[in-house]
């Protein structure tokens, strides 16, 4: 009995330590790091106010970029940027759009300045100068991407996107209330610890306008954590970035792009089933788009996001765009069906092997590692322009992007999922050209998954507070007027009429109670193994049981972790709070800045870990809502042999600080994404001893019911 207990403990340690993004390791910031962290938080305060911090305004006056070339590892990037700057860049206060070619070129040139700055001092001086001289949206984007990709910025915590630009995440009702609170001089605001604060109720679009049935899942589509994740995903792997210099190809970026969007669809479908909506609708380029979307968002300069009415008929006005889209789609389908890609020089690349998916993903995304963007085109860019309901501008510097054309807002629109259902159709079409796994390819000889135990699964809505103080303009922060004690305590907070204040948006978000599962695994010998965990539907919208192959594209991956099996019985226990891939809610800007100031003054140890990593999926969205009386779902568990990746995991970066983007060492093993659901399933060779389908009910409760449960 003693040996069995020891085996269990060893296994638990292995399981816990193998998180994909979340780790249990914690480091603490030193003073040089805190200097950087403090500066990065302050630079994003009220980005549309040019003279907010008087000391920054004074610092940038003496900076001359043209004479600063020696402070960049590639001095030519200064000349590249200055050509744009002297010719005329996107003006301040204009709407920035990555889908506008001119905006994107300028943003990349600005990014190069930040990325190739030799050291922190050079980066900081360049950043402070740019804060006052380039378009605000372009500045935020370029700095964000640079921080995520510079090795000397690992561990730096950026404010959440929804706190930098609340306009993209909270509707006009909330933003207007926030501005009224400030203009009315703290009326009905409470003061605590020297700071006025107010909590503004926020809800989802479907609460105000039920324009179509899709609004039932607006709480999922408009979740600020989900949309932030998508924004960061596209900042980690920008379409314009590629080549050996950045190394994104090492992460199998093309395959990851396709799998990531397939997972979005699978997770969204589970939420649709919880709301009796069924499969994701399809559409035709030549027919009216049935599903409209009323975002109720506006840009900082007051321009509202474009609206797409129900039964939007874009073809009559943009038939030339439809021809371009269908050309791209036809070429992609021909590449899949023929089994090869045409290169610019007329030669071919074979994609009939399992690694061909990488080429296909790069082509579909039209990213910097695509082998032929000219021929296979820019499907996503052109399609989002057509579907979003936006219009072409006559002024090349002007843009009014739809929600689909902003990474911060794209997942709010139901048509996002309808479009990517079409795109992922190419992914499945390709997968269907590959042979099904044979029994010996998915079986794990000598290993059997005996039994599974799982806690009751309960979801609920709870309130979440986001700091939206950046939604209002504040008084210029003059450091010379603040007392030394106040400066040390609060740092540089939003200021009005001599008082500090913070505004919160309070919104209900889906969540779940923590749960655990226990696997009993028998192994004939000691060996390393990987445990895969997925959740999928049990029945379709009509109550029919899904067949195994038809259901494979509907499974959402929950976990993927390493274990050390011992000979005999292994009890593997895993808690949902330790699941790989998922991260907890972001700390609000106010709390984060306060912690940094306390640490900066020596009164607090500022922790550095991955518990809120930007590259992690929101943990609160792990489970679909389910139903009050319980809704059946099925989990899929599989224990597979460990296959070491080409580059040992965590090589080249500190996994307690960084997501390792571009390192080629992010992944625990070399399995294809989505394995074993990444190919057609032959049921005659499918069911092996190392896999189990497990039925479970998900109950949805009110927050009151959850809090009243006696533990």
Automatic annotation (TrEMBL):
Q: Which UniProt keywords apply?
A: Signal, Storage protein
SUPFAM superfamilies hit by this protein: Di-copper centre-containing domain, E set domains, Hemocyanin, N-terminal domain
Q: Does the keyword Signal apply?
A: yes
Domain named Hemocyanin N-terminal is located at 33-155
User: GO molecular function: any one?
Assistant: nutrient reservoir activity
What Gene Ontology terms for biological process does this UniProt record contain? energy homeostasis
Q: Which GO terms describe its cellular component?
A: extracellular space
Give the Hemocyanin C-terminal domain ranges.
437-700
Q: What InterPro entries does this protein's entry cite?
A: Di-copper_centre_dom_sf, Hemocyanin/hexamerin, Hemocyanin/hexamerin_mid_dom, Hemocyanin_C, Hemocyanin_C_sf, Hemocyanin_N, Hemocyanin_N_sf, Ig_E-set
Keyword Ligase appears in the UniProt entry? no
Question: What region holds the Hemocyanin middle domain?
Answer: 160-427
Organism superkingdom: Eukaryota
Q: Which residues form the signal peptide?
A: 1-19
User: What name does this protein carry?
Assistant: Hexamerin A
- Specify the species: Anopheles culicifacies
Species lineage: Eukaryota, Metazoa, Ecdysozoa, Arthropoda, Hexapoda
